Amino acid sequence: MAFASFDSKNASAPMAEINMVPLIDVMLVLLVIFIVTAPLLTHAVKLELPQASAQVNPPVADKVEFAIDAAGQRFWNGEAVARDEAAARFAEAGRRQPQPEIHLRADQAVPYRHVAQTLADAARAGLTKVGFVSEPDAP
User: Fold this and answer.
1) CA distances (Å), 38 to each of 31, 34, 35, 46, 112, in order?
2) At a CB cut-off of 8 Å and minimum separation 6, what does 122 contact?
3) Could you count the other beta carbons within 10 Å of the beta carbon of residue 105?
4) Helices assigned H by DSSP within 58-134
5) b/e 70-101 (16+ beta carbons within 10 angstroms → b)
6) What pLDDT, on the 0 to 100 scale, is given for residue 74?
7) 104 touches 63 (CB < 8 A)
8) What domains lie within the chain, and their CATH numbers?
9) What is the pLDDT of residue 135?
10) 129: burial class by Cβ within 10 Å (0-12, 13-18, 19+)?
């Protein structure tokens, strides 16, 4: 609190002090309130869950190594196939659950037309997991 002074020469000057004690008291009260109420804000329901010994075995999706060489010849897991046969195999793989992953390896000299046709055949069959395989750059 500010008190008035009987000194006339300092009476006209404003008081340049801020009393921090009430501010600190309010902050300490708020801190105590937050410390007390914080544990009450966690809503936990005590449950005793049953114990099970079985483990979940997620199905593992197989993969298909699909390659296109520089001449445009297609290979399904190392076996040479024509485009229509590859499309039929894509359709059969699209019906399986879980769907296999298609790992597409294309020679860098192959025309993009062959890669685009292969991607279109896979998309038409409903296959969504198609990955491009490449060689890393030499350091």
Assistant:
1) 10, 6, 6, 19, 62
2) 90, 102, 130
3) 15
4) 83-95, 112-124
5) eebebebeeeebeeeebbebbeebbeeeebeb
6) 94
7) no
8) 63-132 (3.30.420.270)
9) 84
10) middle
On the 0-12 / 13-18 / 19+ scale of CB atoms within 10 A, 130 is: middle
At residue 1, does pLDDT exceed 60? Answer: no
Predicted local confidence at residue 68, as pLDDT: 94
What count of Cα atoms within 13 Å lies in the side-chain half-sphere of residue 96?
A: 17
CA distance 105 to 100: 16
- What is the mean pLDDT of the segment spanning 38-64? 74
With bands split at pLDDT 50, 70 and 90, how would you rate the model's confidence at 38? confident
DSSP state of 77: T
